[in-house]
């Protein structure tokens, strides 16, 4: 899929490394065809030693080196990075942005590039179990879309959407989602410790319970409501626990949290238009 092309990462953080690791492990591209740039020389040495790629601290050189360029920097330093690479990208570059809240219109305006893919991965992508939602401009032809799909698929599962508006929704649901899950896990562990388990034992119980619950939901294909009903006996412990969760407004709080994240993602994009 990526044969006879070159791939550059502007930004060499955890998500960029996850993509590099996945792409190389799947043998989609040779290490010598991959370049990554970041601000720290020690990070460049680390990536070169670990994967055999070209790693450096000059964004301009990295931008020139890639036929496909992945923007993987923090949103707050994007204006500085854009100024650095603006004149270094070829007109036919395929640009993939994984920057939260940054709309395609901003990238097109600032970099004068038409073939743009915008994607929203999440942190489980660092171990190949991520969920990435992505879209592309009409200028991205079918071969380029397959290349983008292969790169993003290296993080785990990927889903293409035709409307960029879904990216802000994905940011709130799957992009931010691991934070909600980790908080819920933390609360369960703390409850276990409060009852008398050691923290180590409580963590093991919670981690395996959540992992197994996801696995059975995927394997059976049943709706979560049906699965919940199957473990809730009348007058039993699950029924009592669920009553307290509903009484405390768990569904409402989760819905409000996701909606707040969605509004924040849209607001970040709107800032770029001002």
Description:
This protein has 274 residues and is an alpha/beta fold. It has two domains: 7-163, Rossmann fold (3-Layer(aba) Sandwich), CATH 3.40.50; 177-268, ProC C-terminal domain-like fold. The protein contains twelve helices and eight strands. The protein has an eight-stranded mixed β-sheet, with helices on both faces. Strand 2, helix 2 and strand 3 (54-56) form a beta-alpha-beta unit. The model has no long low-confidence stretch (mean pLDDT 95).
* Alpha-beta content class: alpha/beta
CA distance, first residue to last residue: 38 Å
**DSSP strand count:** 8
**In percent, how helical is the residue content?**
40-55%
> Regarding quaternary structure, how should these chains be classified?
single chain
Q: CATH first level of the largest domain: which class?
A: Alpha Beta
Count of alpha/pi helices? 12
Shape category: elongated
Series of H and E elements:
EHEHEHEHEHEEHEHHHHHH
Low-confidence stretches: none
CATH architecture label of the largest domain: 3-Layer(aba) Sandwich
Could you tell me the CATH topology label of the largest domain: Rossmann fold
What is the CATH H-level superfamily of the largest domain? Answer: NAD(P)-binding Rossmann-like Domain
**What's the arrangement of strands in the largest beta sheet?**
3-2-1-4-5-6-7-8
| Rg over alpha carbons | 21 Å
How confident overall, as mean pLDDT?
95
Reported for the largest beta sheet, the result is: 8 strands, mixed
What's the number of domains? 2
Proportion of beta-strand residues:
5-15%
């Amino acid at each position: 899929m990526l044969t006879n092309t070159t791939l550059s990462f502007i930004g060499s953080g955890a998500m960029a490394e996850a993509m590099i690791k996945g792409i190389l492990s799947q043998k989609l591209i040779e290490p010598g065809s991959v370049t990554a740039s970041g601000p720290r020389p020690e990070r460049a040495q680390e990536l070169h030693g670990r994967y055999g790629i070209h790693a450096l601290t000059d964004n301009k050189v990295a931008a020139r080196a890639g036929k496909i360029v992945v923007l993987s920097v923090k949103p707050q330093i994007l204006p500085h990075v854009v100024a650095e690479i603006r004149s270094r990208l070829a007109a036919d570059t395929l640009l993939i942005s994984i920057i939260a809240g940054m709309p395609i219109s901003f990238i097109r305006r600032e970099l004068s590039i038409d073939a743009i893919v915008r994607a929203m991965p999440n942190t489980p992508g660092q171990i190949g179990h991520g969920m990435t939602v992505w879209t592309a401009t009409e200028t991205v032809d079918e071969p380029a879309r397959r290349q983008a799909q292969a790169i993003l698929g290296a993080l785990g599962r990927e889903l293409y959407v035709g409307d960029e508006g879904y990216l802000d929704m994905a940011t709130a649901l799957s992009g931010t989602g691991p934070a909600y899950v980790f908080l819920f896990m933390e609360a369960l562990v703390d409850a276990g410790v409060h009852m008398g388990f050691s923290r180590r034992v409580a963590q093991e119980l919670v981690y395996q319970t959540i992992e197994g619950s996801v696995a059975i939901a995927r394997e059976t294909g049943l709706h979560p409501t049906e699965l919940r009903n199957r473990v809730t006996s009348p007058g039993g412990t699950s029924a009592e626990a669920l009553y307290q969760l509903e009484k405390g407004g768990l569904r409402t709080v989760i819905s409000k949290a996701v909606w707040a994240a969605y509004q924040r993602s849209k607001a970040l994009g709107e800032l770029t238009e001002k």
